[in-house]
Amino acid sequence: MRKLSTALTLLGATTLAVGMAQAQNAEVGASYFGQYCATCHGMDAKGDGPMTQMMTVMVPDLTLLSADADGKFPMLDVIHIIDGRTGLRAHGGPMPVYGAVFRSESGGDTSDADVLFGLGKVLSIAYYLESVQQ
Ligand code: HEC
Predict the structure, then answer these.
(1) Angle at the Cα of 21 (from 2 to 72), degrees rounded to 5?
(2) What residues does ligand 1 touch, defined as CB less than 6 Å away?
(3) How many Å apart are CA 122 and CA 29, to the nearest integer?
């Protein structure tokens, strides 16, 4: 019995830690979002950033990604769209891709460290977007 309650306490602590880590990721992501994405998508991600006045295409409201995907946040698609390496948006779409930009900020080549650094930025932004879904 004692073992069980210890295990449950540990499980609770782990869940809490994971939850806290995600909240922290989202916070970091919010500041990256402000830096890289808000000019078009708006700081609240609703698609009304200052650049939209100069654009001929609609900039989507990113708080509706889950609503548009049967209520489930499309994490993998979002990661791919931001990163751009899958080519999902790479060919002439108006939305810039950021994987290479983030990787080059870490030094410019393709070492493991650059790749991880880039992925971390992409992920934290994706967590931020997940946290602002309506
Ligand atoms: C120059 C303006 C611009 C910037 C900067 C920009 N986007 Fe976009 N984004 C767009 C446009 C326009 C679309 C819709 C057309 C397309 O998908 O190419 C789009 C589409 C998206 C989509 C797909 C939405 C859907 O409904 O399928 C996601 C996700 C997204 N952007 C995230 C981001 C993130 C995250 C950043 C910052 C790292 C960012 N965007 C920066 C203009 C921009």
Answers:
(1) 100
(2) 36-37, 39-41, 51, 57, 59-60, 62, 78, 81-82, 89, 93-96, 98, 125
(3) 8
**pLDDT the model gives residue 68:** 96
Q: Which residue has the tokens 């992501």?
A: 29
Would you say how long the chain is, in residues? 134
d(CA 41, ligand 1 centre) in Å: 7
Both tokens of 27, joined, read 């916070």
Residues 44-94: pLDDT tens digits? 999 999 999 988 888 999 999 999 999 999 999 999 899 886 665 545 577
Which residues have a Cβ under 8 Å from the Cβ of 34 and sit 6 or more positions away? Answer: 43
7-18 pLDDT, tens per residue? 556 556 655 666
CA dihedral 36, 41, 46, 49 (to 10 degrees): 110
